[in-house]
Specification:
By secondary structure, the chain is of the alpha/beta class. 38% of the residues lie in helices and 23% in strands. The chain starts with a strand and ends with a helix.
């Protein structure tokens, strides 16, 4: 199998590290060679962050270059647009519609771009955008956006749901497991 590339992008503090660990564990358990990068960027709350998950028969490097991402999973709308150049021509974006103002917007030096989903689609990108924050809140915690996104991403993977659930059981702390399973299901069925 050729190597597949997943970028997980967002803002520090949103749970992208748990999402990448979950995805990496899931793929390892399915028998793939997996490389997961460290978090790159300002991982303090509020800074842009990106992790790479690469999997296949044999993966040499954890790094994804421009135009190589099969999937971009984004916790925040502007982050999806920011990393769009990394998407393959036939790649898929799975994004939350949540907006988190970056510092230039907060200080008034810039405006948050409007109609980002439409602008990304206008480039030919396939964009699956949903209100992950609302679904996470429905599951019981705004912090479950990561599992809502993983549930949505599961649509694009030919893997049994049981494998996703087993990965959650291995990675998610027990006291948060039921909430995270509910968030996953809400994202999957949205």
């Amino acid at each position: 199998m050729e190597t597949k590339n997943v970028m997980i992008v967002g803002v520090g503090g949103q749970g992208s590290l748990l999402a990448s660990k979950l995805l990496g564990h899931l793929l390892l358990e399915q028998g793939y060679d997996v490389k997961v990068s460290e978090v790159h960027g300002m991982s303090q709350r509020g800074g842009s962050v990106v992790t790479y998950v690469r999997y296949g028969d044999k993966v040499a490097s954890p790094v994804i270059d421009r135009g190589e991402a099969d999937y971009i999973v984004s916790f925040e709308l502007l982050e999806a647009a920011r990393w769009l150049s990394y998407l393959k021509p036939d790649g898929q974006i799975v994004t939350s519609t949540q907006r988190i103002d970056p510092m230039p917007v907060i200080t008034g030096a810039a405006q948050y771009p409007e109609e980002l989903v439409e602008k990304m689609r206008a480039t030919g990108a396939k964009v699956d955008a949903l209100d992950c924050l609302a679904l996470a809140n429905e599951a019981g915690s705004s912090k479950a956006v990561n599992l809502v996104l993983m549930g949505r991403l599961s649509h694009y993977f030919d893997l049994p749901e049981q494998a996703w659930l087993e990965a959650m059981e291995a990675i998610v702390p027990a006291k948060f497991l039921e909430l995270n399973k509910k968030a996953f299901e809400l994202g999957k069925n949205a």
